[in-house]
Design brief:
Protein name: Glutaredoxin 3 (Grx3)
CATH architecture: 3-Layer(aba) Sandwich
Strand order of the largest sheet: 2-1-3-4
Number of strands: 4
Largest sheet: 4 strands, mixed
GO biological process, one term: cell redox homeostasis
Keywords: Disulfide bond, Electron transport, Redox-active center, Transport
Number of helices: 4
CATH topology: Glutaredoxin
Strand content: 15-25%
Pfam family, one: Glutaredoxin
Radius of gyration: 12 Å
Family: Belongs to the glutaredoxin family.
Structural class: alpha+beta
Distance between the termini: 9 Å
Order of helices and strands: EHEHEEHH
Amino acid sequence: MVSVRIYRTRTCPYCQRAERLLKKRGAKKMQLIDVAANRKLWAVMKKETKRDTVPQIYIGDYHVGGFDDLAELDRSGKLKSLLFPS
């Protein structure tokens, strides 16, 4: 299984939903990066993703995007193959 990195804030409902969905699908290695109180981390997130909203999710080196993008991957059946490549 690959690692998952999530730029998030603790109070963001979409961040919480993303974490729950990933756990439900078997993700175990999740790096949760709270950008709420750290402008430098927020700037890193914006530079990497070209977006300024949370969550921003990476599965391995693949930038998924936000929660809606993650949910679409799940609906299409592609999320499991990203989490558990053969």
